[in-house]
Design a protein that fits this description.
This protein is an alpha+beta fold. It has three helices and three strands. The chain is 33% helix and 21% strand. The chain has a three-stranded antiparallel sheet, with helices on one face.
């Protein structure tokens, strides 16, 4: 089975403005700082622009599995309650030692 992992961020601000960032970047300190060469595009537009509506629609469809497509699973399917893994992740992210 194919695993897609789109990375996007949508910010709606006061004054009917929006910023949509989409691309390959993992939003971690190491990847945004210096680990990988990442590519993304930033679109600044009115909040009611078609590109912003499409970004919102894509998120809603992915999050809620609407439209007859199963894109994501509930968090519980992958939940990991290991305290060791939690603190290892926090340490590697804070220090920049992570590879993710």
């Amino acid at each position: 089975a194919e695993q897609g992992h789109a990375k996007s961020m949508l910010l709606l601000t006061a004054g009917n403005r929006a910023a949509l960032i989409a691309g390959s970047a993992n939003y971690t300190r190491r990847n945004l700082d210096d680990y990988n060469l990442e590519s993304s595009v930033r679109v600044l537009a009115r909040a009611d622009a078609p590109v912003i509506a499409r970004g919102t629609s894509y998120f809603e469809q992915s999050w809620g599995n609407t439209g007859g497509r199963r894109i994501s699973l509930p968090y519980a399917a992958f939940e990991d309650t290991s305290r060791l893994r939690y603190w290892r992740y926090r340490f590697t992210e804070a220090t920049g030692l992570s590879s993710f």
